[in-house]
Amino acid sequence: MSLLEIYEISAYYVHNNSTTKAVDNVSFSVEENEIFGIAGESGCGKSTLVKTIYGFIEPPLYLDKGKIIYNFKDSNEINSVTKKNISSNWWKKISYIPQGSMNVLNPVRRIKKFFRNLWKAHSMNLSYEKYYNLVISHLHHLGLPADILEYYPHQLSGGMKQRVVIAAASLFHPELIVADEPTSALDVGVQLDVLRLLIKIQNEYKNTIIIVAHDMSVMANFCSRIAIMYAGNIVEVAETKALFKNPLHPYTKLLIDSLPKIGDIRELKAIPGSPPDLTSPPSGCKFHPRCHFAKNICIKEEPNLKKITIDHAVACHLLER
Ligand SMILES: Nc1ncnc2c1ncn2[C@@H]1O[C@H](COP(=O)(O)OP(=O)(O)OP(=O)(O)O)[C@@H](O)[C@H]1O
Ligand SMILES: [Mg+2]
Question: What stretch of H or E contains 136?
Fold first, then answer.
C-alpha cells in the first residue's frame, strides 16, 4: 500500500493583487520504505509541495484544492492536509527538515536547548531524563558524539548542524521524513555523508523518505524513484534508472544533459530560457515556450500525467498517439 497518496493538489500564494500558482494540480504516490526524490529548477514549487505534504499551510499559502491520504501504521487513514488533522502526527509519524534548516538552530542556545524545546513540544509523555537518554542513545546510534549537545551552533560545521537536525527529525522514528534540500550549501564530500546518514536511518527504521534537490545527480544513487517538477507541475515520475536511461519529457532530457558526467570534457548544456512567472504561467503545457518540439496542442491544452509503463509516467503531448 502507498504510504502517501496525493490527489490533484493545488497550493497557491495569494497576495492582494497576485496569485502564485506554486503547486498546480499535482498527483502522485509514495510507497512504504522508499526514498523518493523531487527535482527541478529553482522556483518550480518543490518547497511549496513538501510544505503542503507536511500540512504546513499558512497564509499567504492556501490550499486551493486536492487531498492527501497518509496511510500511517496503527492509525486510521488521515485524509486531509489541514494543520489541525496532521499536526498531532508531526515528529512522531511525519518529520520535516525544512530548506536551510541548519540555520534554524538558535545561535545563542546550546544544541541541548534545541532538543529540550523539542521535548517540551512533543515529549510523548516521557520524563525529561528518559527523553535525554533517548537523545543520547539516538546520537550514538547515528554516529554523532553526544558532547555536541553542549555546543553552540556556531561551533559546529554546516554538515554537523545538518546532521543534528536530521537526528532530531528521526528521533521518534517517524514513518515519513520529508527533507527539503538537506545537502545544499554543503561541500560535495559532506553532501554524501549527510545523504548516507539519511540512508542509514531509512535502512534501520524502515521509514519512507522524500528528498528534494535541484541537482538530480545528488539523488541518482540514493532514490528509488524521482519526480521532476516544472512550474508547479509534476511532468515526469519514474524509477530512477529508467528516468536516467530513458527520460521522456523534453525538460527531463535537458535537466539530465545539464548534469556533469565523469570523463566527459564537452561543455555542459544549459537549459535554454528561464522558468515562467507563476503569477501568469503560460497556457497549455507550461514548458512549451522553452520546448524545441512544441506543437499547436502544447500551446492550447495542459497535458495530464499519464502512465507509459507501470513505473514511468509523463505529462507531454508529444508522447500521446
Ligand atoms: N511567500 C511567498 N509569497 C509569494 N510567492 C512565493 C512565496 N514563497 C514562494 N513563492 C513563489 O512560489 C514559487 C515556488 O517557490 P518554491 O520555494 O516552492 O520553489 P522551489 O522549487 O522550492 O525553489 P528553490 O529550488 O529555489 O528552493 C516561486 O515562484 C516563488 O517565488
Ligand atoms: Mg525550495
Answer: helix 128-141
Ligand 1 pocket mutation, candidates 46, 52, 271, criterion most atoms within 8 A of CB:
46
Shortest-distance atom of ligand 1 to CA 99: 27
Q: And the C-alpha cell for 180?
A: 527539503
Pairing of strands 225-230, 233-239: antiparallel
Query: What is the model's pLDDT at position 12?
Result: 97
Q: How far is CA 249 from the centre of its chain?
A: 20
Mean pLDDT of the 19-36 span: 96
Answer whether 46 contacts ligand 1 (Cβ < 6 A). yes
Nearest to 311 by CA among 10, 31, 68: 31
Per-position DSSP letters for 156-207, written without gaps between them: S-HHHHHHHHHHHHHTT--SEEEEESTTTTS-HHHHHHHHHHHHHHHHHH--
Domains of the chain plus CATH, in order, are: 2-108+152-319 (3.40.50.300)
**231-257 pLDDT tens trace:** 999 999 999 999 999 999 999 999 998
Check if 60 has its Cβ closer than 6 Å to any atom of ligand 1. yes
Single out the residue of 59, 61, 62, 52 nearest to residue 4, CA to CA.
52
**Residues, beta carbon < 5 Å, ion ligand 2:** 46-47, 99
Condensed to tens digits (0 to 9), the pLDDT of residues 254-306 reads 999 887 666 666 666 778 899 999 999 999 999 999 999 999 999 999 999 99
| Cβ of 113 below 6 Å from ligand 1 | no
